[in-house]
Design a protein that fits this description.
- By secondary structure, this protein is an alpha/beta fold.
- The protein has four domains: about 120 residues, NAD(P)-binding Rossmann-like Domain (Rossmann fold), CATH 3.40.50; about 90 residues, 2-Layer Sandwich (Alpha-Beta Plaits), CATH 3.30.70.1450; about 90 residues, 3-Layer(aba) Sandwich (Rossmann fold), CATH 3.40.50.720; about 80 residues, Regulator of K+ conductance, C-terminal domain (Alpha-Beta Plaits), CATH 3.30.70.1450.
- About 30% of the residues lie in helices and about 25% in strands.
- It has 14 helices and 22 strands.
- Helix 1 packs across helix 13.
- The longest helix is centred in the N-terminal third of the chain and has 14 residues.
- The chain is globular, with a radius of gyration of 22 Å.
Length: about 450
Amino acid sequence: MKIIISGAYAIGTHLAKMLSRNHEDITLLDEAEDRLAQIGSDFDLLTMQASPSSIKALRAAGADHADLFISVTPDQSLNITSCVLAKALGAKKTVAMINNSEYTDPALQAFFADLGVSSLIYPEKLAAIDIINGLKMSWVRQRWDVHHGALVMLAIKLRETCEILNNPLKNLCGPDDPYHVVAIKRLNDTIIPGGNDELKLYDLAYFMTTPQYIPYIRKIVGKELYADVKNVMIMGGGSTAVRAVNTMPEYMDTKVLEISEERCEQLNNLMDNDKALIINGDGRDIQLLQEEGITNTQAFVALTDNAETNILACLTAKRLGVRKTVAMVENVDYVNMAESLDIGTIINKKAIAASHIYQIMLDDNVVNMRFLTTTNADVAEFVAKEKSRVTKKPVKDLGLPKGTTIGGLVRNDEGMLVSGHTQILAGDIVVVFCHNVNMKTIEKFFI
């Protein structure tokens, strides 16, 4: 697949590195030589110093025969313009990163498609969705809904109160049991478990279940005493914080700590209907946190531009008794460190945006996809097509690659778990977990 990426910034370089490992034909385009130089020589891709708004440069990069053109510079107008030009030159699909929430209105999708922009990516909105999903369940590190919640994936840190430790999964996750453990993060290792694997203390376990059994999962992992989130403190008043506050459930009371007095004044105009109390101060200031009621707060969310600051602030909040912490960590190198420090939910906009862009590369039978940063694994929803390989044999006989497991499926809008004897039917929405497996390899089973 021929892919051109415009913008050697955080998202562009992360995406280029990820796709180059899949042996795609990648050209990374940027006006600054120093940004291109930072990507190094260890990745199989072509770099090109040029403006993405130059028709001559786009032609030289191969836009006329590109399968996908992605523009992820910080300049929204440049992203849209370069996509329009690339599409006019012959690119099959184009993706533009934006920072204007107005453009995400579904009613405008056809308008942008007519212009030449196939898809729009708004990382702040995607990150806000992850944050809100994490806050709705204080005892869960990450929640992912399949087909409007017919199936649910829950990432849970296992503590001493967990009832199902040190027991082979074949004794816990049989065909008639209401959950499957589809992945385990143990220290620095990711495990796609088999029947003989066991859950251990401090594992981060990924459960697949149906909504009615969420209370049961909560009980067996020993999280019933975790208080539901009603009071939230957010440190940092950037665009992600604004988006999160404006989509916060009505029952949550929110305080935003912002160190810049000027930004505090702006936030008062950006927040919808006075949905948050804006406080001018440093979220790492213990005295300020205590004055603002940190002891009565169930969740602390650190969303500054500095990963170290966010990690430190979450550690401080935990020491002051907050159980649920969320940290935005944009530097991928810090993700494992944040996990090892037991920070809680990690938000990485690069990985979130890259997941959505990667899904666009795949065929229309991929409904949804996420890259799980903590486990370095992918999870995707595939629609099984008529006469596809996945419909011809029971799951146990499919010969799926090592590092792959099927977590469940949705049939006629009803979620169900999968055993080795399950027969997948055409039209089923199937949830697949992959670790160190190219998702396009899995896609061949469904088309």
